[in-house]
Amino acid sequence: MTCNYKCLPVNRFEEGSYAIVPYREEDRFLIMKWRNEQIDVLRQNRLLTEADQDRYYREVVEPSFSEDRPRIILFSYLRDEDCIGYGGLTNIDWDSRRAEISFLVDTDRTRDLKVYREDFSVFLRLMKRIAFGALQFNRLFAETFDIRPHHIRILEDNGFRLEGRMRQHVIIRGRPGDSLIHGCLKEYCDAEG
Known about the structure:
The protein is an alpha+beta fold. The protein is built from six helices and eight strands; from the N terminus they run E-E-H-H-E-E-E-H-H-E-H-E-E-H.
């Protein structure tokens, strides 16, 4: 079954061999697997089960499709029509016209820095098209644990500016770690062309 977001004028966005489509139910267990494998870089404090993933899809994702102003807009991320990841806009504040970027790809793809750079860069461009174009938002932001220098560099290379560091904000592998906040304003994109 294909679901569409009521709040979007179109529900498929493409760049080259990449595409994003509304979060497909059929991808939920792949996404669960990747989330569990990459738990150290996520705001997730325990391994997910299939029951957790079913409940999340049914109670959070599915209702968001029909809402005028959903709190999340999540996509399955495709390469040559195969799901390689997911992500989208979370913690949406419609009145302030802002959203947080969420992104996760297949764990194997994260190990090849060149592949990961391409995957993440294309995804960020697609999210900016949706946020600043289709939704007319003003701001996107991302929170990243500082143990991910490559991820941070890609954010910055794609127009996200470091706005702050929350010191010892998280516990990663039993040790305190910092979270970095990056932001991208619509005006940055407009100025870049």
